[in-house]
Specification:
Layout: E1 2-7, H1 14-25, E2 28-31, H2 32-38, H3 47-54, H4 67-76, H5 78-106, E3 110-114, E4 129-134, H6 137-148, H7 152-161, H8 165-171, E5 174-177, H9 182-194
Helix pairs in contact: 4-5, 6-7
Length: 196
């Protein structure tokens, strides 16, 4: 089984690349962000720890964690963001490593692991290749404003807190330009697969 690690800043269009790999190459896709939500579900391993950190005010009527409240707190308080990361990130990584084993036994030919902090959290250690999805900053801001309803300022602040383009480029094995021409993106994906 080959494992591709996919990373890039928020709004880079990583999901577009993942969808294509899943559809065209039968890839088994794991997204750190979605797994982060799973481990915070009422039966998830981080549920009680997150409530202990933020207090019972984050519990909604259906017993799930109100991620909007959590997001607002961590956006305003760096120390709380760090504490949350210290709870969530190791659990997500463990989940991904366990799932890779499961899929390997099941005969999955291609595993794709997507994480914004793929390099920072050293996921590259178990990936055969790391792909960086690059999109121009202004396009990313527009995408975040349109898809998530962010203000220009919020989108810019989030982008500013992420790793630099130089950092991504320095650590990636392959770079896909994803500025909007999907045919171009698809052909770059196919070229990357051929090079595996």
């Amino acid at each position: 089984m080959k494992i591709i690690g996919i990373t890039g800043g928020v709004g880079a269009g990583k999901s577009t690349v993942l969808d294509y790999l899943e559809k065209e190459f039968n890839a088994c896709v794991l997204q750190a962000d979605k797994i982060g939500h799973l481990v915070m579900e009422p039966d998830g391993i981080c549920y009680d720890l997150v409530i202990a950190l933020f207090g019972k005010k984050i519990i909604k009527n259906d017993k799930t964690i109100d991620r909007k409240i959590v997001s607002d707190v961590v956006f305003a308080h760096e120390e709380m963001r760090q504490k949350l990361d210290d709870i969530i990130h190791p659990a997500v990584k463990r989940y991904i490593l366990d799932e890779i084993e499961v899929q390997q036994r099941a005969g999955c030919p291609l595993m794709v692991v997507e994480a914004a902090l793929l390099l920072e959290d050293h996921y590259d250690a178990f990936c055969d290749k790391v792909w960086y999805i690059h999109t121009d900053r202004e396009i990313r801001i527009e995408r975040l404003m349109n898809s998530r309803g962010y203000t220009r300022e919020k989108a810019g602040n989030i982008i500013a807190r992420q790793a630099t383009e130089e950092f991504f480029r320095e650590h990636a094995d392959y770079i896909i330009q994803n500025n909007g021409d999907l045919k171009e993106t698809w052909s770059q994906i196919e070229e990357g697969i051929r090079a595996l």
